[in-house]
Every structure is written in C-alpha cells, then in structure tokens.
C-alpha cells in the first residue's frame, strides 16, 4: 500500500520511524532506560540510514494516489514491526521469576528454547504459504513444488534461514537496539561494497550518511562507558568496611598461637 502511493525516497524516509518505535517499546515493555544522548543517537541513526539510501532512491517519481494513506501505511508497518521485535525479545528473556515470588512455591517450568520459539513463530506462516500454494496449484501440479529452485536459490534460502537464527541469537543475548545498529552497519557496508565493485565513487549523500551512522554509534555507547567509568571510580574510592580496631583485633587473633589450639579443640569436639 505504501509503495503504491509513495515514492521510494518517501518510503525510505518514513520507514526509518521503525527505529524510534522500537526504542519506545524497548523502554515501555522491557522497562529499560535510555539516556537523552542515546535518544539523540537513535535519531541520528535513522537520519544516517535514510541519507545512505536516499542516493539509491533519488530521481524516482512518486506514484499516483493518496500520499497520506501511504504515510499512514508505512507508519503502521513500522509501529507493528517495532512492537513485534520487542515482544519477541520479551518472550525470549522472560525466564526469571518475579521479584515478589515466594521461594516456597514450586519452580516454574523452564522457558522454551530459542529453537522452539522459532518453530512457534514459523507456524503462523503456514496458512499464508498454503494460500499461495493454492493460488499456484496448476503450476505446482505440472512442474512440482520445487520448480525454479536452482543451487543459487537454495544458497539464498540457507543464508536467509541462518540470518534469522543469528537475529534471534542477537535479540536473546543482546537487545533490539544492538540489532538495529548491526542492520545499519550492514546497509553502510553493502553500499560501500557496491561502490567498490562497480568502481563508482561514493556520493556525498553516502559519505554524510556513513558519518551520521558512525557518530550515532559512538554517541549511543558514550553514556554506557561513562557509567562504567564512574562505577569503577566509586568502587576504587570507597572506604574499606573494616575499621582500624577490627583490623587490629583480627591481626591479634591471627598472630595468637592459642587460637590454633582453640580451633583444633573445637574441631575435635564437633567430630566427637
């Protein structure tokens, strides 16, 4: 719907709202906290990815139709995609019992594995695939269900499946923000590789977008590095919990030869 009513440039621009929607659900559903600098970094990330892709989509004429409906469609798609990503992360990581849970209650069953979650999510694609098979049943009867599957197509299928497992592992062991940065860096590297292979110099839009993505990456990680440095400095500057009298007392006990005899007598008594 959005591509039929928006130009490729407008579609790329509005689709970057997925980054901000994902960050919003990251805060609301997972209870995480983002610093103002990190929100600014995510905004710069969206602008950077959009700028990198603008050069490729430049010059495309907008299709005929209502642009307002196209914007609403792409925003709805970004909203639903951001919610699905964060909910998937929440499902993968909900293994610990709630803070107020009783320790006498039986332990909850272990959460499903990453493989089982992928199987459960894959079940929703079966009805869609069945409808497509029914729509193309005449060709399937004539030439079989695997028509057109060349070795190159199988390689693409295997690469896509392996990429899906990698994405699920990143979401489970990191978070969706890291996944968004990985996707942004992949887009930049793909455009750079295309420029090298085709022997065409990178455009000013590409260089500007790459600078925005790299700056966003540094800005997003700055509050984390600052917090770690502050925590390390506070731990180093914290006074020792042992006071001087306690230290002297413990040293005196350690140096007292009768303390060893007392310890041996206590052990002997307990054994008897």
Tell me what you see in this structure.
With 272 residues, the chain is mostly helical. Helix content is 76%, strand content 0%. It contains 13 helices and no strands. Helix 3 (17-28) packs antiparallel against helix 4. The termini are far apart.
As a percent range, the share of helical residues equals over 70%
Number of strands: 0
The helix tally amounts to 13
Apparent shape: globular
Explain briefly what this protein structure is:
The chain contains 13 helices and no strands. The chain is mostly helical. Helix 2 (8-15) runs parallel beside helix 5.
Topology record:
Layout: H1 2-5, H2 8-15, H3 17-28, H4 36-57, H5 67-93, H6 114-122, H7 125-135, H8 137-143, H9 151-173, H10 176-197, H11 204-237, H12 244-255, H13 257-271
Defining traits:
single chain; 272 residues; mainly alpha
């Amino acid at each position: 719907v959005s591509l039929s009513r928006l130009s490729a440039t407008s579609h790329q621009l509005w689709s970057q709202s997925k980054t901000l929607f994902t960050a919003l659900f990251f805060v609301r559903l997972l209870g995480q906290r983002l610093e103002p600098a990190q929100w600014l970094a995510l905004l710069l990330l969206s602008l950077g990815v959009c700028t990198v892709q603008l050069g490729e989509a430049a010059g495309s004429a907008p299709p005929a139709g209502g642009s307002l409906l196209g914007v609403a469609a792409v925003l709805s798609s970004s909203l639903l995609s951001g919610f699905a990503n964060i909910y998937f992360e929440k499902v993968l990581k909900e293994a610990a019992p709630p803070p107020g849970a009783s320790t006498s209650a039986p332990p909850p069953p272990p959460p499903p594995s990453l493989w089982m979650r992928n199987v459960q999510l894959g079940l929703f694609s079966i009805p869609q695939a069945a409808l497509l098979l029914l729509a193309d049943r005449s060709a399937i009867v004539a030439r079989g269900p695997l028509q057109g599957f060349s070795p190159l197509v199988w390689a693409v299928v295997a690469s896509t499946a392996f990429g899906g497992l990698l994405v699920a592992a990143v979401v489970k062991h990191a978070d969706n923000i890291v996944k968004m940065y990985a996707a942004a860096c992949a887009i930049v590297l793909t455009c750079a590789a295309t420029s090298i292979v085709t022997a065409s110099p990178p455009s000013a839009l590409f260089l500007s977008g790459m600078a925005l993505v790299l700056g966003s990456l540094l800005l997003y990680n700055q509050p984390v590095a600052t917090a770690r440095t502050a925590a390390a400095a506070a731990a180093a500057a914290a006074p020792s919990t042992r006071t001087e009298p306690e230290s002297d007392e413990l040293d005196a006990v350690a140096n007292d030869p009768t303390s060893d005899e007392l310890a041996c007598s206590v052990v002997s008594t307990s054994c008897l």
